[in-house]
């Protein structure tokens, strides 16, 4: 099997704050790191980018999003993405690892922000013109501080990034059903479930396994996931399986039979039916597309 998508790490960028943070304007970022980012890849850090000019598309975990002025994308570690952008593209990008936030804000978590608390949440945000200036200014101040040599530089970068995420959260919040009341405990349970699924999805496909691992009933776990995401635990397990299937079909030379076996299914026809029912293409058709 040939290599799947490369994983970039923050050490590949000229990062500050003990190697935990990086900022740049998007044009210089692309010109400097084009070889790293022009093809599908993953990374081990959080990435937040805003486009202020230009067009194109940004594909994240096999979903395509329009790039235009006011587009913001917020990616968590492990997501697969790449973009295709016009020559007149402009904007800003910041990247940091979890440690950057944990060290500076010991009483809070990066998972508290609505765009980061679950992989299920939409990674895109399109900012209206009347809000755009304030958000762009925050990105610009972060970049300027990152490039400065002033006293308390790290403190200001941390504070500005926190303010940026707060402002983006306020704009993002309407994307979440206003009738939903997400308790902190429910979000913690969702994150725990996602970590367990990520660890065991190849061998464990039943909701009962994950509920037992979390010491709660299957019914209660489903109620939490339904309240947060409008889905079931089984939906999350299957979506994780299918995401890995898409990654392998586009990033490896596995046969469909090998893929089926690797993902923990005995019947290739059954797996192919699930794949097509959910994604609209057979595994073979998807592989040809990519």
What is the β-strand count?
Answer: 10
Provide the helix percentage.
40-55%
Mean pLDDT: 89
Cα shape = globular
| Largest β-sheet summary | 5 strands, antiparallel
Low-confidence parts? none
Within the CATH hierarchy, at the fold level, what is the topology of the largest domain?
Jelly Rolls
- Please write the CATH class name of the largest domain: Mainly Beta
Percent strand: 15-25%
Number of helices: 11
> Can you list the strand order of the major beta sheet?
2-9-4-7-10
Give the N-to-C terminal Cα separation. 17 Å
Radius of gyration: 20 Å
Task: Give the CATH H-level superfamily of the largest domain.
Answer: Regulatory protein AraC
N-to-C SSE series? EEHEEEEEEEHEHHHHHHHHH
Tell me which CATH architecture of the largest domain applies here. Answer: Sandwich
- The domain tally reads 2
What class would the helix/strand composition place it in? alpha+beta
InterPro entries: AraC-bd, Homeodomain-like_sf, HTH-like, HTH_AraC, RmlC-like_jellyroll, Tscrpt_reg_AraC-type_HTH
Protein name: AraC family transcriptional regulator
Domain HTH araC/xylS-type: 191-289
Keywords: DNA-binding, Transcription, Transcription regulation
Key attributes of the depicted protein:
HTH-like, five-stranded antiparallel beta sheet, 290 residues, Jelly Rolls, three-stranded antiparallel beta sheet, Arc Repressor Mutant, subunit A, 11 helices, DNA-binding, 48% helix, alpha+beta, single chain, transcription
């Amino acid at each position: 099997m040939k290599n799947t998508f490369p994983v970039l790490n923050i050490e590949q960028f000229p990062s500050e704050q003990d190697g935990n943070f990086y900022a740049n304007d998007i044009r210089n970022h692309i010109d400097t790191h084009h070889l790293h980012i022009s093809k599908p890849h993953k990374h081990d850090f959080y990435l937040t980018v805003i486009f202020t000019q230009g067009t194109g598309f940004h594909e994240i975990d096999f979903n395509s999003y329009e790039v235009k002025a006011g587009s913001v994308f917020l990616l968590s570690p492990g997501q697969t993405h790449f973009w295709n952008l016009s020559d007149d593209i402009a904007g800003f990008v910041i990247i940091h690892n979890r440690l950057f936030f944990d060290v500076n804000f010991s009483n809070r978590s990066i998972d508290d922000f609505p765009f980061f608390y679950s992989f299920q949440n939409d990674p895109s945000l399109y900012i209206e013109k009347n809000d755009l200036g304030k958000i762009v200014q925050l990105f610009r101040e972060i970049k300027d501080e990152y490039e400065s040599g002033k006293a308390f530089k790290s403190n200001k970068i941390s504070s500005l990034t926190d303010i940026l995420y707060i402002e983006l959260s306020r704009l993002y919040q309407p994307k979440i059903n206003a009738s939903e009341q997400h308790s902190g405990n429910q979000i913690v349970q969702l994150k725990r479930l996602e970590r367990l699924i990520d660890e065991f999805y190849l061998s464990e496909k039943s909701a009962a396994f994950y509920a037992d691992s979390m010491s709660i009933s299957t019914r209660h776990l489903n109620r939490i996931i339904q309240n947060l995401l409008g889905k079931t635990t089984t939906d999350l397990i299957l979506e994780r399986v299918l995401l890995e299937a898409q990654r392998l079909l586009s990033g490896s030379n596995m046969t469909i039979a090998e893929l089926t076996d690797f993902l923990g299914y005995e019947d290739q026809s059954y797996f192919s039916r699930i794949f097509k029912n959910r994604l609209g293409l057979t595994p073979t058709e998807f592989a040809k597309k990519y």
